[in-house]
Structures are given as structure tokens and as C-alpha cells.
Design goal:
The protein has about 250 residues and is an alpha/beta fold. The chain has seven helices and seven strands, in the order βαβαβαβαβαβααβ. The mean pLDDT is about 95.
Length: about 250
């Protein structure tokens, strides 16, 4: 294992489970001090415990990404605790679907917009405000989805619209702030080994059987594979990668 992020501070939202937890663990394994953020203290504490058990350094901070004051406080507490904000991963997101757009409840639509789009926007604003005042700048990775800018399926138009917005927002923000020394990119996973990729009532074995025909790769991506893409974009190995949207979906949107 390399230590690409030794001496760096990394903030990960939605770090209490799934892809967010995998990203937090991966950064910690490569030497970063990690702030695991989210709305549920218990799950964040579990992420921190896993990192510390493996010999890493981490802290949990509860925050609601839809509230600007929460997000600003999250960045402030990150810097107070570890001295800088070198990498931020805006991973927090929700999925609502299962009905055509004409039947999408307004409450679901507003929830998708608030968390998936406004949450990323507020994260970017607070993170950039900190990073552009640092001599070393920083790197930001937003978690989008292959559903959106890359491919579409019926029944999830609200989710698709918000994730397409994340991909577009990432590219626009990257152009706005590369002159500030901040690289902004996104990762767009397809179905990954999380509960979000399970259909209602579906078991993991059912999902594995379905994916054999649904994906050219024949399986879901592991959360570690998605995390590896995030770490690449955040690292100096990607020093000239700006405004990229890296799709990790086993060829589904190829």
C-alpha cells in the first residue's frame, strides 16, 4: 500500500455506509486524516472505529448537507481539527424511484434536489472558500452516477435529472476554480455492492444473477473499486485531470 495522502486532510460526506464508508477507509489506509460526515452519528462512529482499528486517523462530524450553516461548520471543524482541507468528496446522496415522471411525488422530487444537487452545491461553496485560501489549493471529487449524463432507464427520472445536474455542475465548477488551484472532478458509479442497487425484495444472489445479463462486466462494482477511482482523481497522479466525469459501471453506458 502506498501513502499518497500522508499529511493530508480528507472530508467525505455520506461516510456512514456504502461507497462513502469505502472511500473514507481507502483514504485513511493511504495516510490521510479523514473527517467522516453525515446525518447519523452512530454510523459515522462505526466508520471512524473501523479506520482507527486499522491504525488510521479519523473523526466523525454530523451535518446535514442541505443546510448551508451545517456545511460551513463542517468545513470549519475539519480545519480546526486537522489544520487543512486538502481533499473533499461530496458523496451524500439519496435514491427515489420506481414510478414514471408523471407519478413522481413532489416530496420525492424536492428531496432529490435538496440532497443530490443543493447538497453538492453547498459543499462546493464551503470547500472552495477554504481551499482557495490555502497555498496548496485542493481537490474535490463529486459522486454522480452513470444514470444521468451517461445513460437513462425508465422509472427514475427524478434521480437521473439530479445526477445529470451533478455531472454538469462538476464540469462548470472545475472551470471556475482551477485558477484557484482547486481541481474538481466527479466519479459516476453504476450498480455497486450496496443496498441502493438492490431492487425491492431482491437478495444479493438475485442481484448477482440479474447483473450477469444487465452488465457487460457481468457483476456490480465493488465499493473498493469505486473508491480507487476517487483516490486517483484526488491524487497527484491526476494533476492535469480537470472537469472529468469518470464512469465506473462495468460497461453499461459504453
Amino acid at each position: 500500500m502506498t501513502a499518497r495522502f500522508t499529511g493530508k486532510t480528507v472530508l467525505v460526506t455520506g461516510a456512514g455506509s456504502g461507497i462513502g464508508r469505502a472511500i473514507a477507509l481507502a483514504f485513511a489506509a493511504e495516510g490521510a486524516a479523514v473527517v467522516a460526515a453525515g446525518r447519523t452519528a452512530v454510523s459515522l462512529d462505526e466508520t471512524v472505529a473501523l479506520i482507527e482499528k486499522a491504525g488510521g486517523t479519523a473523526a466523525a462530524v454530523t451535518a446535514d448537507v442541505t443546510r448551508s450553516d451545517d456545511v460551513k461548520a463542517l468545513v470549519r471543524r475539519t480545519v480546526e481539527r486537522f489544520g487543512s482541507l486538502d481533499v473533499a468528496v461530496n458523496n451524500a446522496g439519496v435514491f427515489r424511484g420506481g414510478a414514471p415522471i408523471a407519478d413522481l411525488p413532489e416530496e420525492d422530487w424536492r428531496t432529490l434536489l435538496d440532497i443530490n444537487v443543493t447538497g453538492v452545491l453547498l459543499g462546493l461553496q464551503a470547500e472552495v472558500a477554504q481551499m482557495r485560501d490555502q497555498p496548496t489549493g485542493g481537490a474535490i471529487v463529486n459522486i454522480s452516477s452513470n444514470l444521468g449524463a451517461h445513460t437513462r432507464i425508465p422509472g427514475v427520472a427524478g434521480y437521473i435529472a439530479t445526477k445529470a445536474a451533478v455531472s454538469a455542475l462538476t464540469r462548470a465548477a472545475a472551470l471556475d476554480h482551477i485558477s484557484d488551484g482547486i481541481r474538481i472532478n466527479s466519479v459516476s458509479p453504476g450498480a455497486a455492492d450496496t443496498t441502493m442497487s438492490l431492487f425491492p425484495g431482491e437478495t444479493e444472489a438475485d442481484r448477482a444473477a440479474r447483473m450477469k445479463g444487465a452488465s457487460p462486466l457481468g457483476r456490480v462494482s465493488s465499493t473498493a473499486e469505486v473508491a480507487a477511482a476517487v483516490l486517483y482523481l484526488a491524487s497527484s497522479d491526476a494533476a492535469s485531470v480537470v472537469g472529468s466525469d469518470l464512469v465506473i459501471d462495468g460497461g453499461v453506458s459504453a
